[in-house]
Amino acid sequence: MYVSVKGGERAITAAHTLLAEERRGDPAVPELSLAQIEQQMSLGVARVMSEGALYDPELAALAIKQARGDMVEAIFLLRAYRTTLPRLATSLPIDTGQMAVRRRISATFKDIPGGQVLGPTFDYTHRLLDFDLAEVKEPAADLSNSGAVEPEPARPMPSVAKILGSEGLLEPEIPGDETAPVADLTREPLSFPAERDARLQALARGDEGFLLSLGYSTQRGYGRNHPFAGEIRLGEVAVEIQPDELPFPIEIGEIEITECQMVNSFKGSKTKPAQFTRGYGLTFGHGERKAMSMALVDRALRCRELDEEPSSPAQDEEFVLYHCDNLEASGFVQHLKLPHYVDFQSELVMVREMRAQQAALKEAAE
Amino acid sequence: MSYNFAYLDEQTKRMLRRTILKAVAIPGYQVPFGAREMPMPHGWGTGGIQVTAAIIGADDTLKVIDQGADDTTNAVSIRQFFAKTAGVATTTRTEDATIIQTRHRIPEKPLKEGQILVYQVPIPEPLRWLEPRETETRKMHALSEYGAMHVRLYEDIATHGRIATAYDYPVQVNGRYIMRPSPIPKFDNPKMDMNPALQLFGAGREKRIYAVPPYTKVKSLDFDDYPFEVQTWEHSCALCGSEDSFLDEIITSDQGDRMFVCSDSDYCQDRQTAGRREAAE
Residue B257 domain-assigned? Predict the structure, then answer.
């Protein structure tokens, strides 16, 4: 006997209850606090803030908790919240030259003014599971064991790009009109060709994995652009706004960011001399992998501007920008879970008719 | 925390209404708009939800269907969303609704003037499978360069002896723009033509809105010698006996037994009730 698919409402409520139970896990295990996530899962928090396009570590921690550690789901939660927020002001451009630097490395020069600062990095760790971490230690014990070095007082460091730029070897930053409004994809849909501001916004919000693979593909010859990590820096910068009623800007807070200036050798074109060109990457929090990938893809997408023939996926503006958003991608891939009875039925009817027709033709031929 | 009426803020609604007005003024033309991130995933009706949120008022009555049915889970979820954020009355009866948000079907009962049908659209561009680039397809629309579409339909006939498209069958609106009707079965295409209701199409992820105003010509593409045809069934609905509605095939046993029932649950329910009444009389 056929029972019609009823009771959707009850099923949804039951699913939500089950989800809440699964999220909590074994109630005998203490519940995670937002502070724990924010402090001890800080790179996850950084990714959720970057791709969620909202600088709020506490809400990002909440999103991660609610999403059971599913980063794309957490990004979704933060984005959906972000859309509802009013726009109170537009900040002035941040000055990363004034960053309170905690890490800063350049792969192009052995020594640079301000020095190389390794900072908190996985780079030279041996990836051996640290079984000591398996034990939860008391806070006091933790402190006494730490060989923490006193951080040096932060000092402003000129960017490596500035040093190269002074010789004219690096293309100058493309001067933008700082009074002109900045593109905002959350208000105006993407159109092509996309200006660089819209592109950088799309990449900054873009999926880390997608950009990583695309950036990697440029290194393997699909749109090679000869990159050097000119500089990667991590630290805090001030965010300022310029209220109409004041003659000077005011600081509204500090954000932690990672910036990557990729320097790419370039043999020159009809209109440009041989020089080094740039790709740019920026993330909230500590996000080097994403910032570097973003810089590679940004440079690849500058191909038209630099008279390079686009030939690879990473150089294809529509392909990259239409597919880099993990919310759009995740939603559309997973919408295949929704019922498609009607389209499927339509195909079924058609396929049966076509098979009958083909069979009839075959029979007639024999 | 409380949200604005129908969730979206008034500025966003104004932007959406402007987009909708433009869409109505240029039937079948896809108007780009700054789609917002909604609290549901892309691909799950965010375009339709934004259109509905922009046009719904406190005295509207909303019906939401998915695959023709009011009780499929996503239809339930969207109906609950508006019941909660807008506090509007909801209904499952086609004739009682002022706004009907739909995925993949047009109701069997004829719509009337004053009603608005809001379609959820996954891919708005009818030329997308022919040309993946938006920059190109926009040009093709601007120049009415639709030869490629006719060639595709012709190639279907040459290879398969028929146009092998069963749903999301392309139409031409008001003699101008070629439009994707969203993945409704081609069975529903004729209902779009000269419909007294306003038809609005929202594609959230792709950030496009388009429209078919009331009493507008909507023609399914075909050839003189291969006229457009809709699906037919050898069966009638096992529940209400209807012989002219779109039927879903239901598998009822491991042996592959099957039955056919109306995909439009409201239509089927009404006919069952009427049938019982007749039997009682």
Answer: yes
Domain final residue pick, B220, B240, B256: B220
| Domain range enclosing B191 | 10-220
Closest-CA distance, B235 to chain A, in angstroms, reads 12
Q: Strands B218-220, B171-173: parallel, antiparallel or unpaired by DSSP?
A: antiparallel
Where exactly are the structural domains of chain A?
13-82, 96-123+152-172+184-324, 336-365
Q: Which positions of chain B have pLDDT values less than 70?
A: 1
Q: Answer yes or no: do B49 and B162 share one domain.
A: yes
Instruction: Answer whether A9 sits within 8 Å of B80, measured CB to CB.
Output: yes
> Is residue B202 flagged as an active site residue?
no
Does the beta-carbon distance from A335 to B135 stay under 8 Å? no
**Residue B262 is a catalytic residue:** yes
Interval A47-64: pLDDT, tens: 999 999 999 999 999 999
* B134 and B167 within one domain: yes
Catalytic status, residue B275: no
Q: How far is CA A287 from the centre of its chain?
A: 8
Judgement on whether residues B244 and B155 belong to the same structural domain of the protein: no
What does the DSSP assignment read for A309-347? PP-SGGG-HHHHHHH--HHHHHHHHHGGGS--HHHHHHH
Judged by CB atoms closer than 8 Å, whether chains meet at A192 and B246 is answered as no
Measured in whole angstroms, how far is the alpha carbon of residue B167 from the centre of its chain? Answer: 11
pTM: 0.91
CA-CA distance, A206 to A50, in Å (whole number)?
9
Strands B89-90, B61-66: pairing kind: parallel
